[in-house]
Hints:
This protein has one domain (3-140): Four Helix Bundle (Hemerythrin (Met), subunit A) (Up-down Bundle). The chain is built from 5 helices and no strands. It has helices spanning 3-28, 36-44, 49-87, 92-121, 125-140. Helix 1 packs antiparallel against helix 3 (49-87) and helix 1 (3-28) packs parallel to helix 4 (92-121). It comes from Altericroceibacterium spongiae. Keywords: Signal. This is Periplasmic heavy metal sensor.
Amino acid sequence: MSAFHIVLAILLAAAAGCLGALAATQWSGEKQSGGGLHDFVHEELDLTPDQNARLNVLEDRFENKRIRLESTLRAANVDLATAMEAEHSYGPKVAAAIDRVHAQMGELQKATVRHVFAMRELLNEQQRKKFDRQISVSLTGTGRK
């Protein structure tokens, strides 16, 4: 195995990790230059003290889940790097490792979407309209309804 192949495997594994992080960021509604959905909800929706308290509970619960899921995604990326290093081609080990990475990315996305809907449930009708608009902008960049 040449140094080139080792470096290539490491770079590809890093790229897969970056793609996973980017997907998670997009689904959570965060933007690279701003605070994302979390800041929008707290700063723009005029939450009541009760809503704020309930939202904090949801956010703490989700943060713990997100950390766990991101850890499993990183582990899946390590498995991908190992498979790429072992096969040096798109073989069965690499294909299976990619499937594991995608499955973990999907679990993170599903958990994030569930969290978004749980947050939405805490809002009144006027807040939900603003929230829905922000979700649309975060996911599409267009503000579609």
